[in-house]
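Retry 2 of 3 after timeout on previous attempt. Resubmitting structure tokens to design endpoint.
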């Protein structure tokens, strides 16, 4: 195999120490000059050391048990830190600062995905809150807990648009829509990074997985993705572009192959797009072992060849492949890669370390657990975000909120007394003992007005039915049944694809047995992906989707059932009617025959569509009004809708604004979400919701080369079943 990366002769193998003061140690010197000075002093070994990441501490990432490096070299660039206090980190950092020639601090990373110790709802649930400001607050708390515990860098937010919920990682992102993922990417970056990365309460963010990982074929993990350039730009790149525009410090390259070229060796995405089109000056880190996996994917025949492909494509740091630390020096010596390429990667790593203030403050101040974790503000944010992420999917005969006449409440089901699975996948250092169980949340909320009793009924799966008898007896006793069902945390996340999206049969059968008792059933679902709910929907009078809501989910759920909280969540991902419909999502492309081509054996409509969610309020929408019907490319138009709360309780409403471009040189989806806004509306009140349309941003789109396309003609602005037409004219 001929190496494809021949790029010229090495110019120097040894750092040539400039005379005079050590500029890189002077915090008053601009970062770029400190980087220049430091690079000029580094040897090739010291440079290569910066380009690798190992692990430190008890590695509890079940999908990636890398060997523990006992004798970590003092020149290592980064470590994934698995401990929850800074002690080990500071010991390792002291070894590096005192034992290395130039004293370049290590940057410590970790998967702080939805909280560090205060665990928030999974990101898919967070997206259903449609509250980016609240998500930003949650990320700021996660950053504070992480940085004070020895973590400088989180491998979050994950912004992989996902339309196949068989893929377990759907739980980790913000759903099926590119714009939605982009808005929450930017909110997360702001929350994690704040205004000053060297502040001891902020961490560097990491947009992942770059790019197209959510298109994994048939929902299986780590597999091939077939993505056209048009779809790459239209859908998968968009959230990363919005995250980069928000100032994300780093990006993680993905496991998947993108139409024949693996993401972690893809020069087009990591250099042409990231560096040349977007001017991204941050660091690109590989996913775990992704460089070594270039061999499995059939690109590289050796680790050395893989290292060459990755570095030449623009991948700066090697997570756990040992490709860079084993192969870069020989590649320089044989002239396959240049020191200039090495220096560019080192520059990006040093830049982040300077920006984080690690040279001035390499050690994490020691603080007690109560000073670091679970502060009242953190819990309050967790409770609000949990409540706003929950989606009321069904409420027949307004059975919810529960009537005060219901004095005997049966809480049944395996999720009723379950702490661990409420935290979901990637729950960081969340502790089961911190989690309020659903039953306890209901007792706290309702025990003053009703008697509550519990029966498990069945396990999460398996086929033990002896618990049905006790559960049925309890249901017969009760006025209302609260049935708590769901998924284990391990059924979502990495390497957790499922070919069936129904809950285990045992849970469905328990529900059907309870239905025979003739009592109203309120179904509570805790899961990490959309579910196929055909059987359960038929037995439930009400369905509340609580996702995996984190530490404070129980009180939020109980508050919704009691009526203390008015549910405001709306789906950020479609719930299919059948797994056979997949992929089924809101912004599908138009058909040549919109009234034909449907399934013969069942509906082609989903069970619950994108944007769906019920409230205890009753919101009425006025007609849409546009400030003008014709605009030029450099003009704006404001479209307004008035929303009135005609219900008996105040509540929050999210208005989703869509644009449809009916005729275009590159055909567009049926409609595309371009803006959303959430407001509280008191009973009888009316609020104005306005969408300030800027043609380039909201009417245009990018073609397969990433070029903006903005064509004259009519566009439809859509809100619910309302539409107004605006025309773009010369
Ligand atoms: C995993 C995941 C990635 C995570 C990394 C470090 O394989 O794909 O999301 O950040 O390894 O744990």
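Retry 2 succeeded. Sequence:
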């Amino acid at each position: 195999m001929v190496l494809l990366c021949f790029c010229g002769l090495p110019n120097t193998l040894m750092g040539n120490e400039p005379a005079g003061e050590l500029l890189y140690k002077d915090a008053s010197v601009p970062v770029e000059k400190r980087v220049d000075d430091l690079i000029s002093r580094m040897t090739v070994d010291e440079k290569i050391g910066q380009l690798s990441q190992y692990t430190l501490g008890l590695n509890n990432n079940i999908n990636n048990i890398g060997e523990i490096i006992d004798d970590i070299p003092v020149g290592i660039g980064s470590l994934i830190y698995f401990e929850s206090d800074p002690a080990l980190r500071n010991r390792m950092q002291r070894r590096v600062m005192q034992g290395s020639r130039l004293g370049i601090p290590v940057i410590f990373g970790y998967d702080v995905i939805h909280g560090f110790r205060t665990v928030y709802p999974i990101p898919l649930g967070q997206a259903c809150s449609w509250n980016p400001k609240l998500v930003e607050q949650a990320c700021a708390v996660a950053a504070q807990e992480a940085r004070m515990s020895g973590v400088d860098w989180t491998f979050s937010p994950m912004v992989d648009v996902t339309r196949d919920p068989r893929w377990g990682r759907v739980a980790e992102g913000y759903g099926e829509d590119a714009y939605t993922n982009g808005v929450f990417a930017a909110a997360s970056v702001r929350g994690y990074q704040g205004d000053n990365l060297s502040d001891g309460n902020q961490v560097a963010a990491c947009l992942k997985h770059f790019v197209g990982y959510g298109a994994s074929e048939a929902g299986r993990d780590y597999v091939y993705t077939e993505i056209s350039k048009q779809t790459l730009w239209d859908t998968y790149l968009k959230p990363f572009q919005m995250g980069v525009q928000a100032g994300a410090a780093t990006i993680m390259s993905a496991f998947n192959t993108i139409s024949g070229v693996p993401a972690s060796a893809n020069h087009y995405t990591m250099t042409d797009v990231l560096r040349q089109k977007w001017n991204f000056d941050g660091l690109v880190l590989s996913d775990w072992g992704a460089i070594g996996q270039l061999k499995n994917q059939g690109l590289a025949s050796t680790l050395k060849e893989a290292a060459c492909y990755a570095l030449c494509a623009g991948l700066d740091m090697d997570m756990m492949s040992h490709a860079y630390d084993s192969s870069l020096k020989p590649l320089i010596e044989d002239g396959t890669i240049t020191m200039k390429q090495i220096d560019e990667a080192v520059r990006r790593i040093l830049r982040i370390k300077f920006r984080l203030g690690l040279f001035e403050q390499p050690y994490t101040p020691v603080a007690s657990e109560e000073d670091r974790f679970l502060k009242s503000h953190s819990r309050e944010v967790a409770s609000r975000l949990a409540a706003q992420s929950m989606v009321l999917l069904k409420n027949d005969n307004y059975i919810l909120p529960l009537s005060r006449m219901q004095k005997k409440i049966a809480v049944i089901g395996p999720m009723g007394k379950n702490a661990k699975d409420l935290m979901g996948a990637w729950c960081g250092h969340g502790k089961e003992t911190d989690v309020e169980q659903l039953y306890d949340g209901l007792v706290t909320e309702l025990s003053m007005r009703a008697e509550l009793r519990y029966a498990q009924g069945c396990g999460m799966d398996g086929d033990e039915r002896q618990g049905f008898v006790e559960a049925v007896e309890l249901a017969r006793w009760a006025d209302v049944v609260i049935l708590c069902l769901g998924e284990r945390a391990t059924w979502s996340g990495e390497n957790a694809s499922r070919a069936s999206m129904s809950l285990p049969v045992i849970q469905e059968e328990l529900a059907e047995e309870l239905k025979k008792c003739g009592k109203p059933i309120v179904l509570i679902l805790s899961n990490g992906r959309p579910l196929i709910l055909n059987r359960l929907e038929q037995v439930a009078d009400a369905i509340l989707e609580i996702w995996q809501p984190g530490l404070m989910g129980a009180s939020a759920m109980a508050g919704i059932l009691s009526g203390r909280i008015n549910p405001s969540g709306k789906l950020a991902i479609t719930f299919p009617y059948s797994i056979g419909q997949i992929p089924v999502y809101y912004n599908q492309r138009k058909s040549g025959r919109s009234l034909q081509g449907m399934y013969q054996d069942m509906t082609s409509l989903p069970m619950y569509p994108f944007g769906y969610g019920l409230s205890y309020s009753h919101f009425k929408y006025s007609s849409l009004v546009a400030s003008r019907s014709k605009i030029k490319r450099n003009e704006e138009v404001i479209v307004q809708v008035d929303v009135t709360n005609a219900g008996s309780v105040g509540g929050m409403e999210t208005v989703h604004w869509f644009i449809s471009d009916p005729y275009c040189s590159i055909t567009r989806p049926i409609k595309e979400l371009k803006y959303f806004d959430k407001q509280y509306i008191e009973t009888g009140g009316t609020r104005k919701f306005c969408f300030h349309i800027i043609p380039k941003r909201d009417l245009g789109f990018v073609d397969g080369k990433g070029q903006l396309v903005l064509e004259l003609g009519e566009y439809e602005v859509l809100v619910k079943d309302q539409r107004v037409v605006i025309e773009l004219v010369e």
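Attempt log closed. The chain has 21 helices and 27 strands.
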